[in-house]
Amino acid sequence: MGAYSETYRRSLADPEGFWLDAARAIDWAKPPTRALDASAEPFYRWFPDGELNTAYNALDRHADGGRGAQPALIWDSPVTGQKRRYTYSELRDEVAVFAGALTSLGVTRGDRVILYLPMIPEAVIAMLACARIGAVHSVVFGGFAPKELAARIEDAKPKLVIAASCGIEPTRVVEYKPIIDAALATTEHQPEHVVVLQREQAGAELSGTDLDWDDLVESALPVDPVPVKATDPLYILYTSGTTGKPKGVVRDAGGHAVALAWSMGAIYDVHAGDVWWTASDVGWVVGHSYIVYAPLLVGATTVLYEGKPVGTPDAGAFWRVISEHGVQALFTAPTALRAVKKIDPDAAELKKYDLTGFRALFLAGERLDPETYHWAGDKLGTPVIDHWWQTETGWPIAANPRGLEPMPVKPGSATKPVPGWDVHVLDQNGAELPAGQEGAITLKLPLPPGSLTTLWGADERYREAYLSRYPGHYLTGDSGYLDEDGYLFVMGRTDDVINVAGHRLSTGSMEAVLASHPAVAECAVIGVADQLKGQVPRGFVVLKAGADVAEEQLREELVALVRRDIGPVAAFREVSVVEALPKTRSGKILRKTMRGIADGRDEPVPSTIEDVAVLDALRAVLRG
Ligand code: COA
Ligand code: AMP
Description:
alpha/beta, Rossmann fold, GMP Synthetase, Chain A, domain 3, 24% strand, binds coenzyme A, binds adenosine monophosphate
């Protein structure tokens, strides 16, 4: 049996032994004697009697264990023209002091802290400082509007909000403080302070209980890491669900550290001393796991990039960073490569840089289309690895495990289930589907360490959203199939979640925004295929009888509303006024059929349709 098959088999046959072995890669304040606690099933807990500190494992043990002078973090920011390096000792010291600053404000174990920070070292420092004192961070992506930020503040009830004065987009400086003030003007919950890191590109006006990051740090003393229970929450990360209300994915401390450390070696083949770069954002799970925690847990050097794949300044930006910092492996979203390919199809920029040390490209966040796969492989001459996972799982479910046993790639497939994940493809009735047949991808419980333990303050919602559809299984929300060799092909979501340029968004929440417009009687938003972004949202609205508004003006208002209430990241630009929406006789909008038509597929007309003429009219609009 090959290394992969044997490891996979053991992970499912003997999870206890498998994960206790993996747990040895972590320094525990109190080593766990057991791996899985199923006593509160389906709320499984990992390493129930273990205690640790994640920031200690990410920093101190390397700083004090011979890696003190090795770079831990390299910040490269083409949008500001700045670069900065932190050794493990330096990063540990900065984190210890900021943790002291948090402590001086009364933040203690279990308190929540919202971080609204762009791609700057202070984002990593603030995350790890929370972890150091057992506080629970919740990072909010900078592209979200005040309303989205407010929803997260209301749910997490943070003691503090920590922010920068601004984020920098290629076309504009985004001032954060007005966004925070607007959010806090609407929330019942008020944090005790907003701590602001002033950036020179745009300062923020502080008032009342607002605090300046630098002032706070100046008077702070470093604090030691606080051991927490392995089952304590490390962070909450909100993600889009099918409704407008974001889901607060809860990650525990122990399972997370063990799983991420294991994944770094087994999947990515990245080890202590290697230079690793994840081009994503700390606001997403990819950033949490693979910009911040995993590379530091294993003693690698992580690159933090504040820029875009193109336009900062050109389509050679990624190659420049790889060559300049000696990056051995890069993880990004396919959309980033499509952006590069669009501008520089022959990859002429690539020839300007020395990439001899570069070993592999990992892609996730959305489906890797075979064209992009081939392009990247041809141009880079290195393995290009698609892998599939989601915010909830925290680390890859299916991948080509390069550190265990590299396998032949099948374009369009994320390769095989990763050890720990018991992947199934089920039909409507919960029956296992044979190879080649597409169905709902589920994960048999218990999920391995590192996956979500629940939704913040919403155990029932967790159960309802993920565990109720197929008893004994976790519903991923993705559909796909396993082929005869056990390769997994992930085809798309079965719910209202869409992926726009690797950003996960809910069409349900966009519909809620459209429906709030006084002229709109009914609406639907679907994700349609897009060459660059993978998917983009497209809206359809039916006007209220007698609504007196010009179509063009209405369209503009609706686009502006989505931008105001969800944020620019929604990339909502297209909305059509239609006479009616296609529905079943029981009144359900036929979104799947609409998606199929929009993507140019020959979609069969559902037998349950109420009025075929409506579908024909929509087809004309979509193909128009
Ligand atoms: N703060 C504020 N605004 C943000 C933002 C942030 N952190 N990130 C994006 N936005 C804004 C952009 O400025 C843009 O605004 P605009 O409508 O005024 O132009 C809008 O949100 C859409 O941004 P984006 O999705 O970045 O699209 P783009 O057309 O500017 O760029 C890509 C396209 C492909 C270059 C870009 O999406 C990209 O780099 N994607 C990488 C994907 C990624 O990292 N995904 C994370 C999961 S792995
Ligand atoms: P997020 O929670 O933001 O990481 O988004 C997770 C969702 O993105 C998954 O449920 C999939 O729908 C999609 N996704 C992520 N990676 C892949 C991949 N490699 N192939 C196909 N879809 C993917």
